[in-house]
Amino acid sequence: MGLLSDPNRRRALIGMLTRLNAPICMICYMAGVAWFMGLAFEPFTLRTYMSENAMGSTMVEERFPAGERALATGREFAAHKKKTGGMPVDWLVRTMQARGLEVYTQRFSRKLPFPDEDKERYMVKGTNVYGILRAPRAPRTEALVLSAPCSPGNENNQAVGILLGLAQYFRSQIYWAKDIIFLVNEHDLIGMQAWLEGYHHTNTTGMDWSPLQGRGGSIQAALSLELSSDVVTSLDLVLEGLNGQLPNLDLANLFYAFCQKIGVLCTTQGKLPRNDWDTTSGYSHAVQTMMLMVLKQASSRPWGDHGLFLRYHIEAASIKGVNSFRPYKTDATTVGRLLEGMYRKLNNLLERLHQSYFFYLMPSLTRFVSIGYYMPAFGLLALILLLRALDLWVQLSSPPTRTTEDACPPLCPLSAPQPASPGVLSILTPLVISHLTGVALYTLPVLSQELAVEHFPVSETEAVVLTAIAIYTAGLALPHNTHRLLAGEGTEQGWKVLKLVAVLYLAVLLGCTALINFSLVFPERGLLVGVNDPGLTLLFAVFFFQELQETPVTLQEGWMLYLSVISQGILDHALYGSLLYPLAALLVYPCWLLFWNILFWK
Amino acid sequence: CARAPMYDFQEELVIRPLHSGDIYASFQFRTVWDADFMGDQKVSHYRLFPKSLGQVITKFSVRELHISFTQGYWRTMQWGQPYLPSPPGAELWVWFQDTVTDVDGTWKELTNVLSGIFCASLNFIDSTNTVQPSASFKPLGIGNVTDHSFLRYATLPREIVCTENLTPWKKLLPCGSKAGLSVLLKSEKLFHSTFHSQAVHVRPVCQDPQCRTTSMELRQTLNVVFDLHTSGQGKREWSLFKMFSRTLTEACPLASSSKVYVDVTDNPQVRPFELSPATPLLTQAVVLGDRRTYSVYDLTQQASFGSSRSLNMLLRWKAADGEMLRPLLHSERYVAGYGLQAGEIHTLIYNHHPYRAFPVLLLSAVPWYLRLYIHTLTVSSKGKDNRPSYIHYQPSKDRERPHLLEMLLQLPPNSVTEVTVEFERALLKWTEYTPDPNHGFYVGSSVISALVPSVVAMDTNSTLDRPLFSSFFPCKEEASYFMRVYTEPLLVNLPTPDFSMPYNVICLTCTVVAVGYGSLYNLLTRTFQVDEPSPGLAKRIANVIRRFRGVPLL
């Protein structure tokens, strides 16, 4: 400020910033990207460590013996599931009761806004079954949750088997201090959503559910188990939840610690931690892992049944059993012992998990990048926008006064520019129009599906997706027509004002998004380049994601995937309250339309 | 002194096999002392009555004292009704005599003294968790006191009960843990259970039927539930030895009566379990509205011990039996909502009676840091609004006193009544947080007091072994009975600062002050003036020479 209050030096500084604007922006951009890519480089990252004392120093023994019996229970469950053609509610209730749990059920039903073709469901009706192991001499104030989904087909039977086996073993132990809730949820996330809403007696998405009869107080942590084979080669930890929320890093540390102790291979994003960071392949492995995490987080959807717990401030993660072609296999007893160990340590918690990080990226399961390290990368990118805005601001305010420089007092260049009446009007109209297009993009696809189905030979889902794409594309045509209506059409001044507003808009938008879901900033960053539109960015992200997962797709498949991603995005918003779709339709798209407008101004 | 004070001591153990396969053991030790504490005569000679308690009662002019320490939550739906209900943690309620002038001061001193006697953190009872219920806690002894300004009630839901509380409690017994039933009270077994509750009740009772003089009664109770799976190895078979790792060999020599009761109500007809050694003594009583049959072992009779000179009852189930009778009244409470700003407390009260409505008194004391929005209070049964016929609400004062809400509700038959009230979580001052703030803050149990229609009176069609003329009007022996149900305590998370933050905050604040405020102040106070363009070199040299010469500058 001292610098700025001196008019000479201020003029010099501004002069330099405007003169060197383009190079500085280039440098910032390069530095931002380099910084971000450097995050995956091992010497720049920190090793994960257990922060929570209650889980660190207390030793527990794992003695779960009954893996085989658990698998047998799993097979029995599968048989009953097949017989009833869905959730075997009665059998589960009886089995849990026989294991000494307090058993309750919850019915729920949900009509999707349009049929989900990926999972083939529209009118969803189901039942959740859960059993509560009441901790001895505890007053029902704290609970832990272990859940396994009741999936269609032959999946996750082993998970339910291990859940019931653990329930039986846990029941005969005296050391529990928190109630443990064993939950088998039907229709994966929809069931989980119903159960969580029932447990907390909220209704955010308009689902019908019957109230819960039994509770265990405030839930401290939850794990969701997915296991579809009798033996596994590795266990994969899934952390990304709704809206890019992550559980406390200590939960990942706990999982890693027990994998090490018991000797189970463990991965995150399906990638093993590697030690050869100094080789190119080692580095690109870390980059892939981190980019997968970024993309998954950016998608804002829950990547496992645990994802919905995070909204209620319950630390949760999914553990998925992977059975690949590696020779070394882990049996169900070992998986059970791993879970037993984790629950015993969670049981020892005196406070909620809060010691470790909530905002982080993981280039491997053993390394993490905390918010303090990745935010500068974003800061450098946001700086470009501010520099551009400053440049435009100076350009807007100085040219008319430059000829009369001597007459102007020194404070003049920074005082507000003469309100150019055509300028203000000319930016108001595109702003309003692009936002209206955004609103149309947000509301029309779901509203107009019936109309579309009537007139075109498409299914409801296709109707929604294609309507969205149609509105999106129609939006592209708008700027050619809108500005002709305006008085300040085509003036240099108006163009600059619009660009200034658009740049500031984008800066604010990016800033806010970075605080909510950091990973979303990077796809949005595509907008910086100007012509890169959100639709293309999404398409690119789809292909990139498949590439990272080492399952490359052809153009045709990629397109189909792209369509299903759009429909899933809309469904995630309607079913679980994911924020990506409204954010994209109501804010990012209009913002980008402004840039599109600028491109075709003259 | 007119006559020597009379003492009487009784001990009793009730064992109730529960339908879940667990077993419930309830000890009661009763000492009656025919001495008038309330009179002005000084009592100094104690025999069976514990001196430490007696002195406290005299000094603080206590009329009635009820204190309980509980570890665990009584599971009404699985276990039915307890003989003596108590909330998790510690509960203390005291009626003072109307001669006490400074009730709050006396209460403060009393809690500190009791804290020492029972080795518990009762000294944490202060004005922020003490309430004066207007209707829920009436005196249990004689005396018709209605002015509730002499009543104080407080709970500490977080109190952990362990051996250090059991030892002082046992010391109050005349036989200590040396003889009689109290030899069974070994902490390694008592705390290897699913529920443990110990209590002390002191109250005045009538000395004779005309009630001309009063006696002081001290009841010490201990309730414990052993779990089928953890203590019983999953086998439906219980014995005294399995429960307490001790057997009974004698009665307490000081006791006038020493009995063990085993609840065999379901046994005669269905015979789900067998009891050995069998006893010829049976007694019937209406307990909690239900007619129960008990096998009685009189420990004062040598025959009870048999040839082995020790009594070790064995209960063996023959088959896992079916459904138990659902308790007529039970309740549930939880916090709804998410986020750290607002929330909602839901209290559900179930009336399982098929055709009778009955009134209940609901008392909830909520700490001040949950700011109740009392205008959002709703009470509904069967989807309809249910207006309480009596509401006593005392708003909280920050850091001074809790919210107190008492309501008289009518529960329609076979219904769930839901009481909801919204609250906002207060932001505490940073020294007010506990050492473990992320654990959450406790809200003590709500108390539901009710006169429940008795099960005995429920079967209007039963003419079982009763003459017809005695059973026309449903109003029979104990048509309804008093019952108290405690809800779960709540654990609520308050907005908690990151306590490693102060350093960062100090750095940030200093930076903001230095950079932001400093330069703004600078800008505001500096006077701006147009600067002369700097003079040329020749002029400057000329000015230097002029200064030397002492003439005005150019």
Automatic annotation (TrEMBL), chain A:
Alphabetical UniProt keywords: Membrane, Transmembrane, Transmembrane helix
Spans traversing the lipid bilayer: 20-41, 371-390, 500-520, 579-601
Matching Gene3D superfamilies: Zn peptidases (3.40.630.10)
Matches recorded under Pfam families: Gaa1 (PF04114)
Superkingdom of origin: Eukaryota
One of the GO biological process terms: attachment of GPI anchor to protein
Cellular component annotations (GO), alphabetically ordered: GPI-anchor transamidase complex
Entry protein name: Glycosylphosphatidylinositol anchor attachment 1
Organism field: Gadus morhua
Biological classification of the source: Eukaryota, Metazoa, Chordata, Craniata, Vertebrata
Automatic annotation (TrEMBL), chain B:
GO biological process, one term: attachment of GPI anchor to protein
Organism superkingdom: Eukaryota
A Pfam short name: Gpi16
GO terms under cellular component: GPI-anchor transamidase complex
PANTHER family documented for this protein: GPI TRANSAMIDASE COMPONENT PIG-T, GPI TRANSAMIDASE COMPONENT PIG-T-RELATED
Name of the protein in its database record: Phosphatidylinositol glycan anchor biosynthesis, class T
Naturally occurring in which organism (per UniProt): Gadus morhua (Atlantic cod)
